[in-house]
Amino acid sequence: METIYTADALLLIYSFVVFLFIGSFLNVWAIRTLDGTSVLHPRHSHCPSCSTLLTWRDLIPVLSWLFLRGRCRTCGEPISWLYPLGELVSALILTFIVWQQGLSLETFVILTLFVFILTLTMTDIRAKLMPNKITYPGLVVILLLRLFIHPLGLTDYGIGFFVGGALLTLLALVPNGMGGGDIKLFALIGLALGWQGVLFALFYSCVWGTVFGLPLKWAGVIKPRQPIPFGPFILIGTLTAWAYGADIWDLYMQLYR
């Protein structure tokens, strides 16, 4: 029994380290997509201020930023805290998925889904955009995966795709409703989680948006009619829906019985 626990712990530690580097790549993917440049070329990262090529010492996820105190080694200009935050959040969420479900083909599908959601969240935070250059490949990749890995049945995922897209299209007609990027993202989520999963994801995304958004509005941090990125709430709402959606809903409904 102790050997099993040790193996599980080692798997999670290894996963966390690997996912830190994946989070670093997602940062690059998000930024280069917003800049209109290729994620593959140039191969080497550089300082956005002085354009100095970064060495391996500057590219260790989270640790390099901490050791350099958030500044470029060459020019001393600040490096955004969004870099280490994106790496850390990516590693935590992806490791959590492995911890919840273990290693399986379905785990690979869910990890792939959240790789796209994490990247779109990064672009949304930086520029309030969810580029089609990320969403459309996500739809294609998840569709191909679901053709071969479909524990709920293909119809369920197909309905989820249309429910996610159609329902959000209706909400987009409401003043200050969803944007086009949100609609496509929920279509992607529906394709990955099925129709019940996407409905839970929408519900919990709105709950998290309310939990964090209202206090910020009351405190004056968010001004009236000020657009805010909804990507982070979709991220945590979808994670909540996938991991605990049905359980939380059942508990909620029991309060009214």
Q: Number of folding domains? A: 2
Proportion of beta-strand residues: under 5%
Segments where pLDDT lies below 50 for 5+ residues?
none
Shape: globular
**Number of DSSP helical runs:** 8
| Main sheet summary | none
| Overall pLDDT | 86
Describe the structure.
The protein has two domains: 103 residues, no CATH class; 129 residues, no CATH class. The chain is globular, with a radius of gyration of 19 Å. With 257 residues, the protein is mainly α. Helix 1 packs across helix 3, helix 4 packs across helix 8 and helix 5 crosses helix 7. It has eight helices and no strands. Helix content is 70%, strand content 0%. Belongs to the peptidase A24 family. Pfam families: A24_N_bact, Peptidase_A24. It comes from Tumebacillus lacus. Keywords: Cell membrane, Membrane, Transmembrane, Transmembrane helix. It is found in: Cell membrane.
What's a concise summary of this model?
The protein has 257 residues and is mostly helical.
Which characteristics define this entry?
257 residues; 2 domains; globular; mainly alpha; 0% strand
Give a topology summary.
Elements: H1 2-35, H2 63-67, H3 82-101, H4 105-127, H5 132-148, H6 154-172, H7 180-218, H8 231-254
Helix pairs in contact: 1-3, 1-4, 3-4, 4-5, 4-7, 4-8, 5-7, 6-7, 7-8
